[in-house]
Design brief:
The chain contains 17 helices and 28 strands. It has about 750 residues and is of the alpha+beta class. A six-stranded antiparallel β-barrel has the order 5-6-11-10-7-12. Strands 18-19-20-21 form a four-stranded antiparallel sheet, with no helix packed on it.
Length: about 750
């Protein structure tokens, strides 16, 4: 049930002048639960509280005690990390009192977040309005884009997450590509075996050769005309690859985004369904996975043994490591109350229960099951080979080419699972495991079938995806894994960022909000601030610092920043109101200022509240007449004038060019859905491409009689395993929607972005 008491929803609930004394209340939706708990404790001598073994759980136990009125009862605290007989017996053998130091650490975090949210959020509108007045209307990024989804808000974690996205976008916009070239040689052995090698440097030079332009590349190609190629060295070493640990909340969100295309919210929703339980035939309702909000990759010994026995039975002893694998968290803010996310029963393989699950449930369960089983399997063993090749023509310098590749000696955990990487992510120096080389020996001569020069341009770091943002938040110690989905959703709902094909991009509104927060609240927006705060909270939890002193240390500078921001807003308003070139009020003649409202920026009289006049922003100079690109052939039904294409909160629409005299609007005519030429597997109709709020999807032309739909492009060729419908998957693979088959795109099918 979570917390049974919390700070008031619509009030600050904290008194900074009285050592931050909090005012807790029982939320409306928890009153019934508290009444039941209180009634259950009547006439009972002993009460045991068994909430999570972390700060949050300790605070919940304390809130239960306070809300139920049990201060006079002998309440005892028990903790366990898994619901097994041994764990529970061990917990009750070591009962204790509630740890108030842990409780106070949680209170300090909650109060600090409340102070930031309630004190800072009301200043956002005037701060953004101040910035809009500083910018002329002409120089604003796009006034029509500054349309908040709801009231502007700021938060300690939310605002830093926004800064990560906004800073990355500014870095990309400012990036200047730099040209460089590479040279690749197609080489042949004596028995006509071929492979490719890449030019690295001149012999006896450690730095890679620089080819900044075509002229420098042509000079190297000239040196290599008629060159003799010879193998200088062949280095082979054995490389072991270890499996990834079982999922925690953040890694599950990342991998589900990369592999399944799920948003963080979608991942947690489906995982919640698997955790709460699914009807599995004669077995009845079964919880299929352990709790899905966890920071810990640890697994109970019983589950590890069950997994090792399953691996041995299915793949043999060679696939079971000599000792069980133990994993620990690398995050400094991890609170390891629960074990890793894993199947509750390892022998409940995905294929055995697929018919009882929806497509999303089956895919996510298979991902969790594969990851858990692979985590206890033996290493993959590869033979990694590096070949250095010398190339020199008579009287010319000697160049070094290099080829590398790997051969899998023992697949180990890779027979079941390999971890995906984000697009654009580096391989951290690992060799290409998929590339093989022919047998080569030192001194062996080679023939060159051709040199291929290729032009490249440096690329900026990629924009954040949900997966990479979650990883960045985790690495920086920002927030808790259980809150990442909510953080991203808040940024999208506030229209600070947009989410397109899993890519997160800051909006003009997001950039403005972020800029104002960085300018006026540098400590809150400092990415390292959260890490330092977590260290201090650890000191509170360990009894090394008083929680009230911690809050005083934070609130002193923060309250000064608040005062400075309010003064800056006041001064900017006075300065803007005194400018003679401001739009005059139609009612009282006083200057009007730009303010940001619920539906975007508008002009408001500086005489408010005496004068409450407001109006839309004036058109820019070159907007006095409609551009030929905006004006359509549609005519207004009311006045007969042409209509212009406009974009509003709910997408594009037609508006009369006679506005404001004529305010008529009309919707755009719907385009006929594009036929994919693929038959609907449910009723035999045609699958057509449609467009929804979240992008394109493919549904049956017989809708609403048939409501079949898929989110990925359907392929014309059926699955080779079950004749089911195949769709275009990630990396131009074909995925069957009916069974687990995945494979290369069939011949004749056009590749494209899935």
């Amino acid at each position: 049930m979570g917390h049974v008491r919390d700070l008031p929803k619509r009030k600050l609930g904290v008194n900074p002048d009285r050592d931050f004394a909090p005012w807790y209340e029982v939320p409306e939706d928890k009153r019934k639960v508290v009444d039941e708990i209180r009634a259950a404790g009547e006439g009972v001598d002993d009460v045991y509280l068994a909430t999570d073994p972390d700060r949050e759980g300790e605070a919940i136990a304390w809130h239960v005690l306070e809300a139920a009125g049990w201060r006079g009862k002998p309440v005892r605290r028990v903790v366990f990390h898994s619901i097994t007989e041994d764990a529970i017996k061990e917990a009750f053998a070591h009962e204790r009192d509630i740890d108030m130091e842990l409780v106070n650490a949680q209170q300090a975090r909650r109060i600090e977040d409340r102070l930031v949210g309630f004190k800072l959020s009301p200043l956002l509108k005037p701060l953004v309005g101040q910035e809009l007045n500083r910018l002329s209307i002409r120089n604003m990024l796009d006034a029509r884009d500054l349309d908040p989804g709801s009231a502007l808000s700021a938060g300690r974690v939310q605002s830093v997450a926004l800064r990560l996205v906004a800073d990355r976008d500014k870095e990309i916009d400012a990036f200047v590509p730099v040209e460089y070239w590479s040279v690749e040689a197609a080489l042949l052995t004596g028995d006509s075996a071929s492979f490719t090698a890449t030019l690295r440097n001149l012999l006896d030079r450690k730095d890679e050769i620089s080819l900044p332009n075509e002229a420098a590349t042509n000079a190297v190609l000239s040196d290599l005309e008629g060159a003799a190629y010879r193998v200088d060295s062949v280095t082979t070493r054995q490389v072991n690859r270890r499996p990834a640990p079982p999922f925690i909340t953040s890694t599950l969100q990342q991998e589900a985004s990369r592999r399944l295309g799920f948003s963080a919210t979608r991942t947690m929703t489906v995982a919640q369904q698997l955790y709460e339980g699914i009807e599995i035939g004669s077995e009845g309702r079964q919880g299929l996975i352990t709790y899905m909000r966890t920071d810990s990759p640890q697994v109970t010994p019983g589950a590890i043994q069950e997994t090792r026995h399953y691996i041995e039975d299915r793949w043999g002893k060679d696939y079971v490591p000599r000792t069980p694998r133990r994993y620990t968290s690398r995050s400094k803010v991890a609170q390891e109350a629960h074990e890793a996310i894993r199947p509750t029963v390892i022998r409940r393989a995905p294929q055995s229960i697929r018919q009882h699950l929806t497509s999303e449930q089956a895919r996510l369960y298979e991902l969790i099951w594969n990851r858990m089983v692979a985590s206890q399997m033996a290493d993959a063993v590869l033979d990694s080979t590096r070949v250095d090749i010398h190339a020199a023509a008579s009287g010319k310098p000697t160049y070094l080419f290099r080829a590398s590749g790997s051969v899998v000696r023992f697949p180990g955990f890779r027979v079941l699972y390999t971890e995906q990487r984000d697009e654009g992510a580096q391989r951290n120096g690992e060799d290409d495991d998929s590339r093989t080389l022919p047998p080569l020996q030192q001194g062996q001569p080679l023939d060159c079938a051709g040199l291929t020069p290729e032009q490249h341009f440096t690329q900026p770091r990629p924009r954040f995806t949900e997966a990479s943002l979650v990883r960045a938040l985790e690495e920086q110690g920002i927030g808790r894994p259980s809150t990442y989905a909510a953080i991203i959703n808040t940024l999208v709902n506030r229209k600070y960022v947009t989410r397109e094909r899993r890519v997160l991009r800051s909006t003009n509104l997001g950039q403005l909000v972020c800029g104002q927060l960085v300018a006026h609240f540098p400590d809150i927006m400092d990415i390292s601030f959260t890490g330092r705060m977590e260290d201090q909270l650890d000191e509170v939890a360990n009894g090394q610092q008083e929680w009230v002193a911690f809050l005083h240390d934070f609130y002193g500078p923060f309250s000064q920043d608040l005062a400075n921001a309010r003064e800056a807003i006041k001064e900017a308003a006075q300065e803007a109101a005194s400018e003679s070139n401001n739009e005059p009020c139609d009612v009282c003649g006083r200057p009007m200022l730009v303010k940001l409202g619920r539906f975007g920026p508008f002009l408001s009289c500086t005489g408010y509240p005496d004068c409450k006049n407001s109006k839309d922003l004036p058109k820019m100079e070159d907007d006095s007449s409609e551009s030929s690109e905006d004006v359509s052939e549609e005519t207004c039904d009311l006045c007969g004038k042409l209509m212009a294409l406009r974009r509003g909160r709910f997408g594009p629409f037609y508006a009369c060019t006679g506005y404001p005299e004529c305010k008529n609007t009309k919707r755009l005519p719907r385009e006929a859905p594009a036929d994919t030429g693929v038959a609907c597997p449910r009723c035999g109709g045609n699958l057509v491409e449609r467009r929804g709020r979240r992008g394109p999807f493919y549904g049956c032309s017989n809708y609403p009689t048939c409501n079949f739909l898929v989110n990925r492009k359907p392929l014309s060729q059926p699955c080779p395993e079950c004749d089911g419908l195949m769709v275009l998957g990630a990396r131009d693979q074909a995925n069957c929607t009916n069974c687990a088959w995945k494979g290369p795109l069939p011949a004749g099918e056009p590749a494209g972005v899935a």
